[in-house]
Each structure stands twice: as C-alpha cells, then as structure tokens.
Amino acid sequence: MVEAPGWDARRAREIIAEFSGVEGAMLPILHALQGEFGYVAEDATPVIAEALNLSRAEVHGVISFYHDFRHAPAGRHSLKLCRGEACQSMGSEALAQKFLAGRSLGWHETSADGSLTVDPVYCLGLCSSSPAALLDGEPIARLDLASLDEAVDEALAEAQA
Amino acid sequence: MTRIFISKDIAALAVGANKTAARLEAEAKARGLAVEIVRTGSRGMYFLETLVEVETAGGRIGYGPVAAPDVASLFDAGFLAGGAHPLRIGRTEDHPFMARQNRLTFARCGIIDPTSLADYESLGGWRGLARAIEIGPAATIAEVLKSGLRGRGGAGFPTGIKWKTVADAPADRRYVVCNFDEGDSGTFADRMIVEGDPYALIEGMTICALAIGASKGYVYCRSEYPHAGKTFSEALGLARSAGYLGSNIKGSGLSFDIELRMGAGAYVCGEETSLLESLEGRRGIVRAKPPLPAHKGLFARPTVVNNVLSLVAIPTILEHGADFYASFGMGRSRGTMPLQIAGNVRFGGLFETAFGLTLGEIVEDIGGGTATGRPVRAVQCGGPLGAYFPPALFDTPFDYEAFAARDGLIGHGGLVVFDDTVEMAQMARFAMEFCAIESCGKCTPCRIGSTRGVEVVDKIMAGDRVSENLALLEDLCQTMKFGSLCALGGFAPYPVLSAMRHFPEDFSPRALAAE
Questions:
Q1: CA-to-CA distance for B320 and B325, rounded, in angstroms?
Q2: Of A88, A136, B175, B269, whose CB neighbour count within 10 A is largest?
Q3: Which residue of B15, B185, B283 is in closest CB contact with A65?
Q4: Where are the alpha helices (DSSP H) in chain A?
C-alpha cells in the first residue's frame, strides 16, 4: 500500500496517544492530526478506532460528518469565502462567481498547480464588514473583485519568494 | 508617554488595523514622540474601523476610519493632544452610536486590553463572582431568576429556571457548557465579547458552576473563529495562573476549571443536543428531547448549556443586582440585548440596548439605512432561520413576543439589511440550500424536505406551474416547521414563508419572466 503524501503513521499514533486521558477525545484528535498533516488520512481511521475503542465505521462517520476535515491535502494557500446572508446582501455571490471563474475553479476545488484551495464558509462574524473571507486564516473584509484578487495574488507571490 | 488604543478584533484586522498600528509606531519613532500602543477589543462601531483612540485629559478621543496612509496627517494635526482632523469623531463615548446605548454586558469591550487581568479588575471584574460566593448558590440562582434573563442564544428560555433544574437534579457531577458556536449569519456579538473581554465569560461560567455545583466547564467554539479561540485560550491560562480557575478559587472552597473545544464546521452543532454529541466525540446529530440536557446532558449528567451572551450577562446581574438588570427592557424581555446591525447597512456594528426599540429605529435611525444608499427592501432578523421583514413591519418592537406575534424571531439579535436589488425568491432558495447543506440528517422533514425545497423553488423560478408549486412549497414548509426535531428544519421555513408572504411579487411569473 502506498502511503498518502506527507502522512507519517508513527507520528499519527503518537498524536492519538497524547489524548488518551481526554473526555470526548475524538474532535481534539482529528484537529491535531489535521493540524500536523493538513488532512486526515484514511489510514488514521483504524488507529483512532482502536485507541477510542470504537468501530471503524463510527470513526469514519465522525470524520465525514464535519465539513472541516479533509480527506486529501489542500492547496498551499486556503481561501474561505463567506456565503452568509450578510455577505450576500453586499454582493458576495456575484463576487465569488467572478473570482472562481477568473481562476477556473469551483467551490472546494484546488488549483492545478496546488497553490490555492477555495472553500465556501457560512459566516465569519464579519457581518458589518461584508463581503468577507479568511485567507490563510487571516480575515479580510469589505472585499470587491479587485481587492480580493490583490490579496490572493499577494499571498501566492509570498510563497514563491 | 501618550497611550493610543487600536482594536485587534478581527473586524479591525480585516480592514488593516495591524498596518495602521505599525505605521503609527514607525511614525511616532521617526518624529521622536513617546507613545504606547495598546491593542483592545472593538467598540463595535465597525463602520469606523480602524478606530484609533488617544488618551487625553478630556477622555479618549477617537479618529476613524484610519488607514495606514492617513497616519502621517494625524500626527501633523496634533492628534496626540486630540487635535482637529477630518477623521476626528470627538470623545468616543459621545459619538451618537455609543451615546444611545446601554452598555451593561459590553461595558469593558473595546476599552481594555482583553487579556489584562489588571484592566479587568480595575473596571469591575470579579465583583459578580465575589458576591455570588458571599450569598451562596441558592441566592445566586434566585438572583438570576429575578433578573428575568432569558437565553440569548435564540430560544429565550429563562436562564434561572434552567440553572435551578440542573442544581436540583441529583447527580455525581454536573457540567456547565458554553455554546460559542455562533453560526448565524449576521451575528458576531459572542465573537466580539470573547475577543474583547474574555474574562467576563470565565466569570459568568464560574458563577454558574458555583450556583449549580459543577466542577468542569466546556466552551464549544466554532472553528470559523480561530482568533477568538486563541484569545480565550490565552485568557484561560492567565486566569488559571492567577487563581481564578482551578481548585479552591480565591480561597472560596469552589473548584472549577474550563476547557476550550473547537468545533469543525457544522452549523447544526449550535443546537444544544447536537453540540453535546459533538463534545462527546460523535457526529453532531440532534438528540430527541426529553430527556432535557438539564437532566441528562453531557456524558448523561445534568448540564447547563448557555449561550455566550447569557453567561456574560451574569456578572453584571450579580454585581448590580437583579432589579438593576430587570429595570431595562419591556414586557417579558428584560435587560439588554446586543443588536448586531449587519449586511447592507451604513452604520453597521454592535448596539447594546434595552429591549423595545422598533425595527425601523434600529435600521433607519441607528443603522442609517443601506450602505449602497438605495432603499431598504428587507431585513432578515435572527439569523439564517429568521424571517424577512419588509419596511411595512418596521413598527415591530424588538421583543421576543412582539416578533413571534408577527411570525418572526429575534434569535441571537442579528439584523441583516438588504437593499432593493435583493431577489427574495433567491433568498428563499438559499434558506433551503443552507438547510440541506447543514442538516444533521436525523429527521426526514429537514433532511429530505430541504432538498425538495430547493427543487420546488427552482421550479417556481423557472415558471413551471407556479401557483401549484407555491402551494406545494407552503405545504412543505408547514411539514418542516411542525415535523422537524430541532430548530434547523423547524425554522428554515421562516425565511421562505416570510419571503413568500411579504414579497409575493418576487414569486410571480411576471417578475420571474423579467429577469
């Protein structure tokens, strides 16, 4: 079996073991794994199941329930564009469509060169400063196509420098 | 040394507060001026961010919105002494947006360094807890009951009754769980107070723990709020080191600690039983009630699940007394509510006020109408599951019962303003789409109904047998409303039905043909 990119089974076991004494450890474990590897590999399921004394189906059920957990690595940069009603009232749907079309991307897709993943998000709590987004975890707001493109291009350029 | 205050609330960061702060520091250095830049939470006037405040003999003088390129001209205008400048707003407290508020819960927010224990103590921090320790659990619960505080998450259930139920339930251990899964679009009050005054939440939860006899608390924070999570986590560490959490808190004999848990992008986890499932490590599937969480909650123990805003209101109630808090408000809606004025609005931000203002006063007078300058067409009140109100209903007072009487809800206090370019059939479709994306899948009306709802709206928008499909949509909404297990499927029909009722022209074949 070919190991998934960047996945380290031994390190994963160490992370899982760190949460052995925690009540309701599942989400903290999944967050820690995704924090370390950028996604939760299929291989993690049996290890977590054994550690928490659950079936593999139960673990798979949890991972697939939550929007945050990825099954494969994301792009090097992450853009989460808000689709909440407050952002829609300021034209976020049209903005998103134009931005995605300009980059030949759809929601949840990663660019061909692996540089950018775009996900929708339903509210960032920036509802008085719409439209808003999180770019690599940092908030940006009062966006239009020009300022969004500029911010994303800046982030992409930094990585190359 | 002149002190300058700049917010580090994410709504300020999102418009360049860090760049403004860096430029201020560099400019002061270049001019040989001694300044200390203090990073605070936000005052809630998001239309003025980045707001820069200077400490003067006459109070804090505000300038805003200040972008980095404006900084040099502020120094030229002598802003360190409160000098005149086009961006000067005067004393921040005197600004019309601030002066009309009743800041009880948000009194410190935007003024203090959020994680400074000294700042928190100097502005009344821990006094509520001290009084709770002094009067004991039973009297504390009585005080909360008497204050009339109702759950600020949206359901409006009396907080004191919930606490008493948990306190009276026999158990080997009990829990306090704070619902910080603020998923409603148009709301940000929880985020703002946790980023700006995190010790208030710690104090509120500790008072609750004392009242109900809990030794462990959890804060469930949504993952879309990483900054708030970081601030709260830092505050937890500092409070623990200072003896405000842990065993025998400040010699009171009370032992209590709080753990922060992050959600993982599921809106439904804001529903209390789904939240408990998630905390226990399972899929966020809604539980059937009864048993109520107050009887059988987290790990099957009696559990208080309260929204952030309910818990942060507690220290004020204990410090100043139930009568003081209850003297604000109207009818059965007592105290204050932080309104979150959002969307297409000129003066957007957080406005804490006693219940009773009319929707029109909030949107037109305080919010200043739309940001685009076009007429207001609709206001969605209470999040993505709240009804759309047309200007014809602007006389509705902001009160739980008054909104319910008009088939709406105040929910968590979010108000999203739309101008006349909004297409209401599209918004109705989105409500169903959102419900389909976020449904936990346990009950059929929500899981299947939301997807069917999207399809039916699509048919209406395509002009396919419009009147029959409108009747079908109405029927589907009633089924979801009365047949769903929780508020997600149960309330998703509110935006749909209100859009159909108040904006029928958007669903008529002629309007659709014109598109």
A1: 7
A2: B269
A3: B283
A4: 9-18, 26-37, 44-52, 56-65, 85-88, 92-102, 145-160
**Do A86 and A149 lie in a common domain?**
yes
Instruction: Determine contact, residues B489/B480, Cβ cutoff 8 Å.
Output: yes
Task: Examine residue A46 and say whether the peptide bond preceding it is cis (omega within 30 degrees of 0).
Answer: no
Q: Where are the beta strands (DSSP E) in B130-215?
A: 175-180
Q: Give the residue numbers spanning the domain of A27.
A: 9-65
Residue A54 and residue A108 share a domain: no
Residues from chain A that touch B47, judged by Cβ atoms under 8 A, are: 128
Residue where one domain finishes, among candidates A65, A91, A112: A65
Does the annotation list A46 as a binding residue? no
Same-domain check for residues A44 and A18: yes
Express each pLDDT in B196-232 by its tens digit. 999 999 999 999 999 999 999 999 999 999 999 999 9
All domains of chain B in start order, with CATH: 2-99 (3.40.30.10), 117-326 (3.40.50.11540), 329-419 (3.10.20.600), 424-514 (1.20.1440.230)
C-alpha distance from B407 to closest chain A C-alpha (Å): 19
Q: Please check whether residue A32 lies inside any domain of the structure.
A: yes
A15 and A61 assigned to the same domain: yes
Q: For residue B499, list chain A residues with Cβ-Cβ distance below 8 A.
A: none
Asked if B31 and B75 touch (Cβ cutoff 8 Å), the reply is yes
Is a pLDDT exceeding 60 seen at residue A161?
no
In A, minimum Cα distance to B421 occurs at A89
Residue A1 pLDDT: 42
The residue to which tokens 């502020």 are assigned: B74
Task: Return d(Cα B246, Cα B254) in angstroms, integer.
Answer: 8
Percentage of chain B beyond pLDDT 90 is 97
Backbone phi, psi, residue A97, to 5°: -60, -45
What are the chain A neighbours of B437 within 8 Å (beta carbons)? 122
A126:B299 CB<8 A: no
**Is residue A4 one of the residues assigned to a domain?**
no
Angstrom CA distances, B470 to B166, B433, B492, stand at 45, 17, 16
| Chain A residue nearest residue B371, CA to CA | A90
How many structural domains compose chain A?
2
Place of tokens 């939240």: B275
Name every residue in A having a CB less than 8 A away from some CB of B. 23-28, 30-31, 52, 58, 61-62, 65-69, 80, 84-90, 121-130, 132, 134, 137-142
Residue A52 falls within a domain, yes or no? yes
Phi, psi of B104 (to 5 degrees): -100, -60
pTM recorded for the entire structure: 0.96
Same domain? For A103 and A39 the reply is no
Spatial distance between the Cα atoms of B428 and B435, rounded to a whole number of angstroms: 11
Give pLDDT tens digits for B11-46.
999 999 999 999 999 999 999 999 999 999 999 999
State how far the Cα of B420 lies from the Cα of B506, in Å rounded to an integer. 12
